[in-house]
Write a structure and sequence with these properties.
By secondary structure, this protein is of the alpha+beta class. Helix content is 35%, strand content 13%. The protein has 7 helices and 6 strands; from the N terminus they run ααββααααββαββ. The strands form 2 sheets. A 4-stranded antiparallel sheet has the order 3-4-6-5, covered by helices on one side. It has a two-stranded antiparallel sheet with strand order 1-2.
């Protein structure tokens, strides 16, 4: 489990700009928050520091331990995304989880605005390109789609890695739900195409972040 922020780090997080998430603190404090995935350093001068989606969650008092996932880790990024296949999570769809997902999604949109060169929020940012599975799952859950449970035939989405460096696969047992996932990802700035596995005939989506 990730250790909670220190008191000094918490003060820096709590005093972040409520809209942009811009941080003020010592170099050591900001570097520590970056190392823990709670902040990022803007690539352009003056290289200010801002909260990541996880940092926004901490600021709003949202905590929790991510569930393990088969074939894809939900803990690799800074948000404990539900990628599908986790052990049963009774809080899925309940107010605490809905608030957590909403907060993370709003933080991600702000991350897009601050790090995309033109300030666009309608296409993925650099963080999403390095956390494809987590970013895709967050977009789906934020739009109201539910992750699949641990049973092989459970309904709900499953997001998995692929051999392609900038693409993930999205599975759904229901064809209509799969098309709905495609529409959601398209609106969130992902390029999506539908495919069928040659051996099993299983339909799935191939999704990659749109660049322009």
């Amino acid at each position: 489990m990730t250790r909670p922020p220190t008191a000094a780090q918490r003060r820096v997080i709590d005093t972040a700009d409520p809209v942009t998430g811009r941080l003020r603190g010592t170099d050591a404090q900001l570097a520590a928050l970056v190392k823990r995935g709670l902040a990022f350093r803007h690539p352009r001068p003056p290289h200010d520091h801002f909260l990541t989606p996880e940092g926004h969650r901490v600021r709003q008092g949202v905590t929790g331990t991510p569930e393990p996932a088969a074939e894809a880790s939900a803990t690799a990024g800074v948000f404990a995304a539900r990628v599908g296949g986790e052990a049963a999570a009774p809080e899925t769809g309940q107010p605490p989880r809905l608030r957590e997902v909403h907060s993370a999604w709003q933080g991600l949109l702000e991350l897009r605005r601050m790090t995309n060169s033109d300030g666009a929020v309608d296409r993925p940012c650099g963080w999403e390109r390095t956390h494809l599975v987590e970013a895709t799952a967050l977009a789906l859950e934020a739009a109201g789609h539910g992750p699949a449970g641990p049973e092989p035939d459970a309904s709900g989405y499953r997001v998995r890695t692929t051999p392609q460096p900038e693409a993930v696969a999205v599975y759904e047992t229901d064809s209509e739900a799969l098309r709905a996932c495609a529409a959601t990802l398209g609106e969130a700035g992902w390029q999506v195409s539908e495919h069928r596995e040659p051996r099993t005939g299983t339909r799935y989506l191939l999704a990659s972040p749109r660049r322009a």
